[in-house]
Amino acid sequence: MAFLFQGCGKDTEPPGSEPAGEVQELIRLCGSGVETVLEAGNTRAPGDFPNSQQIGVVAAQYNVPVDWTSYNDINNATAVTNREQGGTFYFDFSPVKYWPFDGSNLVFLAYSPPATATNGLTLEASRTVLDIQLTADTPDVMYASNNTTAATTPYSKNNNPTVNLGEFRHALSRLIINVIADSTMNPAVRLESLIVETTVTGASLNLLQGANGLTVDPPVTAPFQYTLTNSSTNFNNGYARNVIVMPGSEEETVLKVRFSDGPYFDYEATYPVTAIQNANNSGPNLVFTPGVNTTVNLTVRGTLVDHPEDAIYLQGELTDWDERDPLGVTIN
Question: Which of 17, 25, 29, 177 matches a 20 to 30 Å C-alpha distance to 292?
Fold first, then answer.
């Protein structure tokens, strides 16, 4: 459902340290576009924006060519969603940022979340490339669609003062794992361990290249593991977890599971993602694609002790990320 874009209002600060005759003016950020179609009665809120409602922003002085290191005041600066209206999210810098007093032009790049020492993201010295490493809590890395025209779209306090970042789009893939108890399963069976292991652990995102900006690193020797559970877990009513993975890394990714009913039954297995059957038989093998969910349904059934491998039935499917829930909203 398309919405009309509404520009951000302009705020001013009281006179202070600004030069005589000048007004200190806040920089405002907006994102316009098309929002996911919602079921009747549902609305979006600022809290639906991923990554704690935070984006990272780089600004540069407008020159040809643009030197993205030329404006140190906005370098991996944090901005936070303050409201959503008509399919558009609105952001304020935290701490606040002001337009240059002399009215000079700036250009902007944006991504989410800001790079920090703990989230696996590093902004390179050029400020145009975001390096990504998997961590125990890898964020939903996104880039702003207007990054591709950022170098040629100047903004200033006197001309075009509302910075339109465009639509935020998912750069990586999401793997969803559902552990399901079949009606024939012994209810005493517990999930003892669930691990996602991959040897593709890094990538770089060229912010200026949009959808073509992601370069995934080659496999490494020491695999990375998401340990989703390592304690006895009841899954009779279902168990679901999701993690972020690198696009195209499905051939280097496996699921490791262990089940037990205590004294009698103990079953452990490793399943390559590429060996899991697509629930849509006419569809492709399971792959990791940017902005797409890869869902694996791991169903545990009752079976004879002589054939424990028959107790596990796996199917997968690919779905668009823009679901009708907060985790899957298409961000504008």
Answer: 29
